[in-house]
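Chain A, query sequence.
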Amino acid sequence: MKLSTRTRYAVRAMIELAQNETNRPLQLKIIAERQDISVKYLEQLMAVLRSAGLIRSVRGSKGGYVLAKTANQIRVSDILHCLEGPITTVECVDDGDHCVRAVECAARQVWMKVQKAIEDVLQSITLQDVVEMARDGRQMDFQI
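Chain A, predicted structure.
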């Protein structure tokens, strides 16, 4: 599984908003500069994130973007799902009718376990966790 550039950039933009301690809206150009993302590309990502209810825009001279919920209410999985859709390792995991061997296939059991592990990790991490990790200069501790 390889995440798209748009998903990686969206996660970085969301982390930037979560790290904003002023709680004032961040302008798109500031996020773009700090994260080295083109403003045009970031505009497209922000529209998707806004329509998913993860961020909101504030109009006016002091406008910009803010998180629509607190950082501890937004999970990394929320961001990925709004940009990528459901996480799928192989087609037969989500659709048992995709393959005639699905019922007795041992490999399918492996892919199901991998998909569940990925989903569990992404569900377990909030933006607040990432902000605290970055602030403290520590690595994520995962128990799988």
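The radius of gyration is 18 Å. The chain has one domain: 5-136.
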